Amino acid sequence: MPDLLQRTLAQHSPDQHGYCRECREASGIAAAWPCATREVAEEAEYIQRGGLPGTLGGRHRSSRA
Ligand SMILES: [Zn+2]
Question: Please, which domain of life does this record's source organism belong to (predicted)?
Fold first, then answer.
């Protein structure tokens, strides 16, 4: 589903304060970017390009090692 993946990557982008534009509630509470959805989407894209699951670097890299 390349369209869904690209749409997800485009939607879950940071605002000027470093929070996800998509992951927020009406009250104004927003998830710090990159949000969990963005990280999953980036790994999906990485796997799509031939990467192995779980080998993409990121903020959880040290805990996965
Ligand atoms: Zn998000």
Answer: Bacteria
Q: Give per-residue pLDDT as tens, 4-14.
A: 999 999 999 99
Burial of 25 (0-12, 13-18, 19+ CB in 10 A): exposed
Q: What is the pLDDT of residues 21-49, one digit of tens each?
A: 999 999 989 999 999 999 999 999 999 99
Smallest CA-to-CA distance from 41 within 65, 17, 58 is with 58
List all residues 6 or more positions away from 12 whose beta carbon is below 8 Å from its beta carbon: 20, 21, 22, 23, 33, 34, 35, 37, 38, 41
- CA–centroid distance, residue 47 to ligand 1 (Å): 19
